[in-house]
Amino acid sequence: MRRKIIHIDMDAFYASVEQRDHPELRGKPVIVGGMPNERGVVSTCSYEARKFGIHSAMPSSTAYRLCPGAVFLHCNFEVYKRVSRQIRDIFHDYTELVEPMSLDEAYLDVTENKKGIPSAVMIAREIKKRIFETTRLTASAGVSYNKFLAKVASDYRKPDGLTVVVPERALEFIGSLPVGKFYGIGRVTEKKLMEMGVSTGEDLRSLSKDRLVSLFGKTGIYYFEIARGIDGREVTPYRIRKSVGNETTLPEDIDDRENMLEILSGLAENVSIYMEKRGMKGRTITLKIKYGDFTSITRSVTVGTYVSNNDIIMESIGRLLGSVDFTGKKVRLLGVTLSNLDTAYDTPEDDEEQLVLPL
Ligand code: TTP
Ligand code: MG
Question: Best mutation site among 43, 48, 156 for ligand 1, i.e. most ligand atoms within 8 A of its Cβ?
Fold first, then answer.
């Protein structure tokens, strides 16, 4: 049977909560995250701030340069988590098949639902309405027959959007989509594809499966399928994550420590962004190295407090790297992982971006 999947994602989540709770901030550029003088990054910003080119993960100092008049606020996780629980309670009125992806985002499988409502679009509309009545915040929803399409649809028209992708229109919808909008295609892959002249879903569809596999390995199969609207992944309620990691195989083997540190810092940054987005922290930092001869080693350190900050992760990674002897060896792959997570946050598993590929 064809499934009915809804993806819900709150609009400018942390910033909207702040504007709701501080009416004087409404209509203004609001930036939530690190302060410009703290070497922090933007967690998110209001739509008013986005007009200045500000976005998540941008250094707050850059955001300040783009819009010196913006209001900068620290994250208020307790409040965001309360809202997150409220919206999850609403989802559970319709189905137990709820897979939260972060505080502000979840997939719902409503093929069979507790209220016996035949139309997934009707459910999405009702959920949006109830979210607004309960939290005074808007969400955008995507409705389709699999997770990939529902996710892309929810992002299609924001804020307060509701986009439906019916099977008959799926290929057309995907075809016109810029590859950067594809869930699972990160910035690096997007750049690689653009350089090859592949800029839309239609272009992506013109690449054979073999070619995609030769370019991207196993992930190429995922790209081949989503370009055709195929995604068999199920909505899996609640899995608790044990670690968050990011690794990369280098274009060529290297033995220069400076170079390694630079790459590791990019990986640590991804891990840090991912964790900060979810209010997660960890205590054990692990460096992974695979050598040119395919043997690997890991080096770990457990620190005294729970951390998620990029610079703090890099301090440990730098020290761990310093303890490795590279004589006569070159490095093929580098990885950074944080484990021993602060489970107080109870964050579900996520397969977003390139951290854990959706396969
Ligand atoms: P998103 O849903 O990606 O962003 P958003 O809700 O702020 O805006 P949009 O309307 O485009 O959905 O992320 C949800 C929250 O996660 C966001 O409010 C803040 C946090 N976050 C980070 O802390 N760091 C990040 O890099 C990103 C992308 C999000
Ligand atoms: Mg959102």
Answer: 43
